[in-house]
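Ops channel
N.P.: pipeline sanity check, posting one input/output pair.
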């Protein structure tokens, strides 16, 4: 029952310049208070970053692309984007999913082995996000879940959106949901929810 209280935390605002999701500290406080009253290890606390925008140029597939931010939150990308609303077992190259970010999408990343339960939790978070009215069935969300072996050391899970990223060492569901609620649909090209052309069918 106490755990269910976490679901009531809704965050939709962004604090300026400092790069914090408004209310993310409140999520931490609620999580800490609840965990203090039960016999369970508290979840990790994630970190929000707001890297400088790196533009939105296109590059020829599959040319190498370098980004200053890790994980990327903007910058050069391929003309095609990854197919929405899927959990991938093979890593989608960053040049594709950065294009997803430009379309207002959220990309959930993981870099771990023997962590299928956590990947399933990421998939469940994606599936339970409110249906996007700009999408056409069978696509319901501008989100994907993909491995990313290039995440920084110590980062096992991440969420990225245009100009924002969240990184953590565990799946902290309240914080991930707060990030999604705050940043979903906030890319510079918000109307592209067609299926996506990568990987080729």
């Amino acid at each position: 029952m106490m755990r269910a209280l976490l679901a009531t935390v809704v965050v939709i605002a962004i604090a300026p310049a400092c790069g914090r999701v408004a209310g993310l500290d409140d999520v931490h406080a609620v999580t800490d208070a609840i965990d203090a009253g039960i016999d369970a290890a508290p979840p990790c606390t994630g970190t929000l970053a707001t890297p400088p925008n790196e533009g939105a140029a296109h590059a020829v597939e599959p040319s190498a692309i370098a980004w200053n931010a890790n994980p990327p939150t903007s910058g050069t990308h391929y003309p095609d984007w990854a197919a929405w609303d899927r959990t991938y077992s093979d890593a989608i190259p960053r040049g594709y999913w950065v294009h997803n970010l430009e379309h207002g999408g959220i990309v959930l990343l993981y870099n771990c082995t023997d962590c299928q339960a956590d990947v399933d939790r990421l998939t469940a978070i994606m599936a339970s996000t409110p249906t996007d009215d700009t999408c056409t069935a069978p696509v319901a969300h501008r989100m994907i879940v993909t491995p990313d072996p290039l995440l920084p050391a110590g980062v096992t899970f991440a969420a990225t959106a245009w100009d924002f990223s969240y990184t953590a060492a565990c799946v902290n569901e309240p914080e991930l949901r707060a990030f999604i609620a705050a940043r979903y649909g906030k890319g510079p090209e918000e109307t592209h929810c067609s299926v996506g052309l990568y990987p080729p069918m």
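N.P.: looks fine end to end. The longest strand covers residues 106-110.
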